[in-house]
Amino acid sequence: MLEATRTFELGQIVITAHALEVLDPEAMLNSLRRHARGDWGELCEEDKAENELSLREGFRLLSAYHDRNGVKFWIITEADRSVTTILLPEDY
Fold first, then answer.
1. Which residues span the domain enclosing 31?
2. Does the residue 2 lie in any domain?
3. What is the number of structural domains in the chain?
4. By three-state DSSP, how is residue 20 classified?
5. Which pLDDT tens digit goes with each residue over 34-88?
6. What is the value of pTM for the model shown?
7. Is 4 part of a structural domain of the chain?
8. What's the CA gap between 76 and 26, in Å, rounded?
9. Which of 15, 38, 56, 61 is geometrically suited to a Cys-Cys bond with 77, CB 3.0 to 4.6 A?
10. pLDDT over 50 (residue 2)
11. Angle of CA points 57, 36, 66, to nearest 5°
């Protein structure tokens, strides 16, 4: 489902217990698709540019989104692309 549009490897996809408890599942999936396409969500332009550099250089990638209830969450893909984590900022 994510394969066709992916810009980089996501590795194993994990979700913190807190995020799983409070986030809308559809928002998580849609945002994960966006993250995989290089749509960094609700980041400032400087952070988006940092992600573009990180994509080229193999550093960690961070996206930020809100679910339909207004809950902010992050998606982080590790530098080695082995793991992508969906989490709330307070889970970090």
1. 9-91
2. no
3. 1
4. helix
5. 999 999 999 999 999 999 999 999 999 999 999 999 999 999 999 999 999 999 9
6. 0.92
7. no
8. 18
9. 61
10. no
11. 115
